Amino acid sequence: MNPWLKRLYDLTPAPVQSALVSAFSARLERSRYGGRFQEYRALLQESQWWDAAKMGDWQDARLREIVTYANEHVPYYRELFARHGVEPAKFRGREDLPKIPVLTRDTVKSRVEDLKTRRKEDLAPGHGHTSGTTGSPLNVWYSPDSITMNYAVMDRVYEWAHAKLGHDGDKVAVVRGNVIVPLSQKRPPFWRHNRNQNQLIMSSFHMTPDNLVAYFEALRDFQPRVVDGYPSSLYVLAKVLLNRGEKMPLHAAVTSSETLYDFQREAIEEAFQCRVFDYYAAAERVIWSTECDKHEGHHLCEEYGVTEIVDDEFRAVPAGAEGFMVGTSLHNRGMPMIRYLTTDRSALKTRTCSCGRVSPMMEDVTTKAEDLLRLKDGRLIPPSVLTHPFKPLNCIEASQLVQTDLDRLLIRLIPRPEYTEKDGQNLVRDLKERLGQDMRIDIELVQSMPRTARGKFKWVISEVKLGL
Ligand SMILES: [Zn+2]
Question: Where do the domains of the chain lie?
Fold first, then answer.
């Protein structure tokens, strides 16, 4: 939204804001379910059951198309292919992908105009910003088809959760980064109704201890079938319920956009008496993965893109080994991204899922590179291993870890009334057991946790350069 419209929106009363949100959504929906939506939806219905050979052939054909297209219409790739001897006419598919150098974030920034297609009809109006965690936004252009594919894939996320998205779908409470409630607002409602989509959109920016009871009552009134949000936001809501000794049975909880920690999954599942369906979507739209109802890991969405896991020298690693995720979009002609190097790390599982779909399974993306702690002795510590000392602590509402130097860690805690200094000492002791005695650990008690500009919460922030 442009700043002028945003100011105007902020000045209107809450019911009018809800009407505006609904109207905007109706407009969005026309584009959402237009174009090739039904075709993609039908494809995804069928292809989820394809065997590996059929899916591989399909991906190879799409890759050949994208490579040929990029060579014809995208200056960056024409130049790159010429330099590296990549001949689109001879390009076979996945087996030839490693001949193309990876595309780094820096290159996307510096060559953004050369990465855009010269074919105007393949550019959707406007472009996406991806924030990442580096604080330097990236501009990415999308083709209309790639946007439609995104919606179709999202639809399947809900289908796998046995739920339905859209105006004729389930009631969904959404707790993501939507800035739909002015930050200056101090009293409820901290949510707006999107009647067009059957959604109650709740702000992630107003969840202070004082306000949470109102959130919870709004949820009760709305009676959603599904909650959909950042793991950290749903976790906060879940904790409020559990601390009050209450539960709110729902059909499903859908999470994404942040690392979902086990303790968050457990609390959400207990409070809402339903399973969590997590999905991972790289902001540059090159990789997508989703949990099915067996919850044995994430299925890679092979219709969406080709995903590789590579080591530090960008060579493929075997299943089971962790590495950086590299993604190639099979749909975005607006700004083809071939072998885009993300800063996210994961591993492919060595086994398939018991649901019968044979698509590769991915481990959780638990370790965004910038979230790893780096110790003096060179150890890289993934955040998930640090969750354990926090598990027994019922006396804190929320926590955040900030590594300020190689040997300094700051822990922010929102304490509950029963918190005592002894709890803090125990926590420090348990963390030192994992990080080393020479790590200096300070505790800061706070009222609320800082979020990024898009309302995301990072549990672990490292201000130490990893050199990756
Ligand atoms: Zn499955």
Answer: 3-33+150-304+343-369, 371-462
Tell whether the model's pLDDT for residue 371 goes beyond 70. Answer: no
Which residues is 461 bridged to in the sheet? 402
CATH architecture of 371-462: 2-Layer Sandwich (3.30)
Rounded to whole angstroms, the Cα distance separating 305 from 154 reads 14
Distance CA 408, CA 102 (A): 34
Fold of 3-33+150-304+343-369: Rossmann fold (3.40.50)
pLDDT digits (tens, 9 = 90+) for 406-435: 999 999 998 888 899 999 999 999 898 888
What single letter denotes the amino acid at residue 306? Answer: V
Using alpha carbons only, give the angle 360, 361, 367 rounded to the nearest 5 degrees: 125
Strand partners, 172: 199, 226
Task: Please give the model's pTM, rounded to 2 decimal places.
Answer: 0.83
Å from CA of 274 to ligand 1 middle: 17
Give the distance (Å) from ligand 1 centre to CA of residue 122: 34
Residue 355 C-alpha to ligand 1 middle, in angstroms? 4
The band of 336, judged by pLDDT with boundaries at 50, 70 and 90, is: very high
Residue whose C-alpha is closest to residue 127's, from 135, 139, 112 = 139
Q: What is the dihedral of CA 71, 73, 74, 77, to 10 degrees?
A: 0
Confidence band, pLDDT 50/70/90 cuts, at residue 137:
low
**Gap between the terminal Cα atoms of the chain:** 35
Structure tokens at 451: 């979020």
363: CA distance to ligand 1 center in Å?
13
Question: Cβ atoms within 10 A of the Cβ of 285, count?
Answer: 25
160 C-alpha to ligand 1 centroid (Å): 9
The pLDDT tens digits for 32-84 are: 777 899 999 999 999 999 999 999 999 999 999 999 999 999 999 999 999 99
* Ligand 1 center to 346 CA (angstroms): 18
Enumerate residues 6+ apart whose C-beta is below 8 A from 434: 381, 385, 386, 388, 389
Please check whether residue 64 is in contact with residue 100, taking contact to mean a CB–CB distance below 8 angstroms: no
Q: Using CA of residue 44, residue 46, residue 52, residue 53, what is the dihedral sign?
A: negative
